[in-house]
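Sanity check

After download, print the first record. It should look like this:
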Amino acid sequence: MINSSQAQPHDLMAPQSPLSNSKMRRVFMGQQGLRVGWSVLLFAAIYFGLNFAVTAALGNLISMDQSPIQLGPGFLAEGSWILVVLIATWIMARIEKRPLLSYGYTGNHKALRLVTGMLWGFLCLSVVVGVLWKAGWLVFDGMSLTGFMAWKYALAWGLGFLLVGVFEESTLRGYLQYTLARGIGFWWAALVLSVAFLIGHASNGGESPLGLLEVGLGGFVFCLSLWYTKSLFWAVGFHTGWDWAQSYFYGTADSGLVIKQHFLASHPAGNPRWSGGTTGPEGSLLILPLLTMVVIGMWLWWDVRKRPAQS
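Expected structure tokens:
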């Protein structure tokens, strides 16, 4: 006899009920499409999968473990990583039916924000270097490049650090900031991704705990510029000008990394807490008051300045 309570073979092939499909859909989909958590996980899976493939294919050609970093490998590495984040963002943009540039590259005055960001990045780093030099915490050893070679590498490394700015800002303050902000709010997303920015620099040789803290704080300042300007152009520009000044123009370490061709030659002296030591100027305690002044400047220029006058 067949027990009537046992499932019949044809019952196993029966389609799921609409209610069951509806429950599954709610797990993955919300009012704005794919839920934030799944979106972030999918982006991360695509990004790390592509990054693994690129690293396996190019190997030592894009390794940043060799110090000082040379121009050719640096270009190849940053170009490859930009391609990876671009493809991952493009795939998510297609899934979410949004324009590719909607993740941080819209808004007005794009070129102006990029250029002014570069100028402010260079000037802010120069202020720190000037104080370090006057206090005896940074010593200049002369020029490493002159004439045509100095201009050649100035332009080449300028483009190289522009790639660095685009890659790092797009990776952590592009799609991920946009998406996480939908789920947990802009400032919690900024905090989480600033910590991720800090962690991403932890493997740099020559980094210090203080330098990592200041990297994280710098990441939060970049998020603040995104909040005010609604785009990443100023942050990319500042990132570019800061790194170019630190690595190429003044010839110091940058988050513990140094490049081979630089304009001036220099070395830190004295207490690493003030000089930055092997981390470079951005590992100095002077960065804390500098970042505070940058935040105040943003507030005065982008917030207070644009408030309607009281009648």
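If your output differs, re-run the checksum step. Summary of this record's structure: Strands lie at 29-30, 33-34, 138-143, 264-268.
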